[in-house]
Amino acid sequence: MLASLFGRRFWITAYVLLVAGFVLPGDYAWLRPSIPILLGGILFFSCIKVAPRDIADAMTQRGVWWRLGWLSIIKLVVLPLGAWGLTWLIAPQWAPGILLMSLMPAGFSSMAFADLYHGNRLTALMLMLLGSLAVPFSVPLFLALCTGSSMSLSDSLHEASYVGLLLFCPFIAAQMMRAALPRVVERYYDHWGHCSIACVCILIFVAVVVNRPSWSHMPMADLLLPLSLTTGAIIFFVSVGWLQGRLLERREGVAFICTAIYMNNGLAVAFASKFYPNDPYMVLPAIIVQFPMMACIVVAGWLFTRARE
């Protein structure tokens, strides 16, 4: 039972810690430096299970680059701009935060979900990798364009290098461990995912309690708006993913929907905490999206399972 709380039932642990972060009293500002460390832990333990041969296999699939090209454009351009545009029409003050959240690449956990729900794990892997390669450049660019803010070249490079370090240092470290300690990696292979999910759950709590002062002046009822907006964004992603899935072979469609729903919002939290630490309109969407994101991936998994029966 305990292991399942960091496995198939991880959403229970995540929801408990998410709610605890909002209601548990105290000052936790001292935990702020742990945010990039915990994100690195998520990526490191996830990347340990990514073998170079998996990437090579994914790259040599028939027609893979054409398919991944247009799916990546939808994931990294169409979905974020659509969510931003819809939010701007309803509540423009929240639009930049929704945009930042939506620009995130697929999370590493999306591979596990694609595998669990009988999707193409390699497609999910490649969409996650391509998104991770693009996001250090797309995030500063789209934030500047859509918010109308001017940004110097040095600021853009700073943001891009920060995102790049957060993503690729854990990946490189994991591959080094795979090469140096292959027997250890293999022996504990089934446990690395639990370690990654444990980091996810802890990061959820830390992200809330560290950034809570930025929205503590807001009435609790006001938090319903960003919750509704992030829920609407996820529903939009699911809808577009479902439409794309109808044009794809089933396993490909399942993989794309998993990557569209389960974003690397931990990266959005780290980015917002670093560059917008006192702005609730930027920080809160990246945190509160965890509510609809987990609910939708569970519901989607149930529907995928029903469809196979």
Briefly summarize what is shown.
By secondary structure, the chain is an all-alpha fold.
What does this 3D model show about the protein?
The structure is a single chain. The protein has 309 residues and is an all-alpha fold. Helix content is 76%, strand content 0%. The protein contains 15 helices and no strands. α2 packs antiparallel against α10, α4 (64-90) crosses α7 (121-147) and α11 crosses α14 (280-288). The radius of gyration is 18 Å and the shape is globular. The mean pLDDT is 84.
Mean pLDDT: 84
Strand content of the residues, in percent? under 5%
Q: Assign a percent range to the helix content.
A: over 70%
Number of strands: 0
- Tell me the Rg in angstroms: 18 Å
| First and last CA, distance | 26 Å
Q: Decide which structural class fits the backbone.
A: mainly alpha
Q: How would you sum up the major sheet?
A: none
The low-pLDDT segments are none
Globally, the shape reads: globular
- Helices, by number, come to 15
**Order of helical and strand elements:** HHHHHHHHHHHHHHH
Key terms:
309 residues; mainly alpha; 15 helices; 76% helix
Secondary-structure blueprint of this entry?
Elements: H1 10-23, H2 34-47, H3 52-59, H4 64-90, H5 95-102, H6 109-116, H7 121-147, H8 153-180, H9 182-187, H10 189-211, H11 224-245, H12 250-261, H13 265-275, H14 280-288, H15 290-308
Helix pairs in contact: 1-10, 2-8, 2-10, 3-7, 4-5, 4-7, 4-11, 5-14, 6-7, 6-12, 7-8, 7-12, 10-13, 10-14, 11-12, 11-14, 11-15, 12-15, 13-14
